[in-house]
Amino acid sequence: MIEARGIVQSVEGRPVLNNLSCSFQKGRMYGIIGPNGVGKSTLLHLLSGVEQPKQGEVLLNGRSIYSFPRKQLARQMAVLQQSGLPPVGFSVREVVSMGRYPFQNWLGNEEHDSETTIDEALTAMGLRELEHRKMDQLSGGERQRVALAKLMAQEPSIILLDEPTTYLDIGFQVQLLDTVRAWQRERKLTVIAVLHDLNLASLYCDELVVLHRGTVAAAGTPQAVLTSALIEQVYETVTAVIEHPLTGTPQIMLQPNSNK
Amino acid sequence: MLLLAVSIVVSLSIGSAGISVRDVWGILIHQLPWLADEPVDYSPGEVAIVTQVRLSRVLLAVLVGACLALAGTGFQGVLRNPLADPYTLGVASGCSVGAAFIILFGLQAALGMWTIPLVAFCTGTVTLLGVFWLSRNKGVMQIETLILSGVIIQSFLGAFVSFMVSMSESVVNQILFWLMGSLAMRSWDNMYMLMPFLAVGFPLLLVYGQSLNLFVLGERHAAHLGIRVERTKLIVLISSTLLTAAAVSVSGVIGFVGLVVPHLIRLLVGPDYRLITPLSAIGGGVFVLWADTLARNVLSPKEIPLGVVTALIGAPFFAYLLHRRKLKQGGSL
């Protein structure tokens, strides 16, 4: 379980998060949503333990996340960044095997053989044919799949995703979130994803955390959170909310103002 | 490794004193302790040239080259900057300021033979910090800005060294020595001075090879994979500066070795620092050895400063890298 308590944080002198508290239970998939610049990525960054907030604390299983040695933390938690992986000269397999770094000693050896773990990750992301290809010969979507395969090789119990679908077309968006969701259910992982697209968030997440004005405006299941009133309050735009014909989850229909 | 051995053999065999190849090896083999009792027919002068001058110089060239190439590898890896090198970052010039200061004011005695490299290390570190400070813009270091800052600092410090040297009595040769680098008139002592630095810096960079691989993906990726980013940066930068200081203390500023060698190695074996680091050490040794062999033989008995030779090879290579980078702007080299 991850818990944020009374977080206060500024980015480049601008106050972003103000006394924010929220908690994430094991084995569930969370979506963090909210308008631009509200501090979604900042919150995720703090949850990852790389940066410390000005005030407040982040607890992992009841212990301050900053007290963990970095390698030990990386064995439990993996992060998929918005920017994706750069087009470097390493092969796909080499990059995926870098996910094993937290399990290696200072000589670069691992106690158990990790090749099967790497093979599984490559297979799960459909990268077996590409495994010897260099990263700089791949498309953006393919590199994002490599990034996810690297995450799988890391075998974490908590995954943080920072707008993982931003640069992908709808086919890849669904494919990526399907994979994450299946993996999350199979291994009972905790997934915390910053998502821009409210409809995707509603389709894939067990619970949503809505950020507004530096703090949590609402949290709960998509049905409970995604209401016209809340969206109007947070995003300052009028929308219609309908049920998805297949899944029954709430879906947002945008409304141009000129149509009134 | 084989290339290194062959290079050492060839370089040992040629020189301006006109000793035949056979005699060179006769003398060397005679130095082996279990053969020392055999009768000799070499003149003491020849023996001195081979053992005191040539052998020490060849080995020194190999070690200096290894130091510079390793430093370049470290800088390039941790800064993720393909154009970084002790010379282009100005660190080498920074080290030479400290070393020149100590020599010209005769302060060597303070800490014995370690005075020069230690002071060079201090001034080199200060220079590195200065270059970082100059090039940092809102917490981000642009690759080109960093190199530009390095060049500015380097020419400033170069002028400073020239100024110091012009104030001293014995001028022209020394100016060339410090600004262009040379391995002439060095001895075994210089090599003993270099050894501990290499013995510390080389293993450190080897151990951090995998960390440097993850750095290639970006600092945040590296952090999320469990690397202590700041500590790794600090250790690699300090090791690289130490190696630079040691090399500069014995040979002056030899440019571009740390730029050219890791790049050629990378072209040969790919981007894995666990391979690049040890191979760069060997490659650097071979490169400087050949440059020095050229330097002392092309216009024999006159010598060309070693830095001239490496710059003649390195500067066009630098231009080529810059050009290629311009072609694929946005991508990383």
Give the SSE map:
The complex is a heterodimer of chains A (260) and B (333).
Chain A: E1 2-11, E2 14-24, E3 29-33, H1 40-47, E4 55-60, E5 63-64, H2 70-76, E6 77-80, H3 92-97, H4 115-124, H5 140-153, E7 158-162, H6 170-187, E8 190-194, H7 198-204, E9 207-212, E10 215-220, H8 222-225, H9 228-235, E11 239-243, E12 250-254
Parallel strand pairs in A: 3-8, 3-9, 6-7, 7-8
Antiparallel strand pairs in A: 1-2, 1-4, 4-5, 9-10, 11-12
Helix pairs in contact in A: 4-5
Chain B: H1 2-13, H2 21-31, H3 44-79, H4 91-104, H5 115-135, E1 136-137, E2 140-141, H6 143-167, H7 172-180, H8 188-207, H9 209-215, H10 219-224, H11 229-251, H12 257-269, H13 273-297, H14 306-327
Antiparallel strand pairs in B: 1-2
Helix pairs in contact in B: 1-13, 2-3, 3-8, 3-11, 3-12, 3-13, 4-5, 4-6, 4-11, 5-6, 5-11, 6-7, 8-11, 8-13, 9-13, 12-13, 13-14
List keywords for this structure.
heterodimer, A: 260 residues, alpha/beta, Rossmann fold, 6-stranded mixed β-sheet, 4-stranded antiparallel β-sheet, 32% helix, B: 333 residues, mainly alpha, ABC transporter involved in vitamin B12 uptake, BtuC, two-stranded antiparallel sheet, 14 helices, 2 strands, 73% helix, 1% strand, globular, Iron complex transport system ATP-binding protein (chain A)
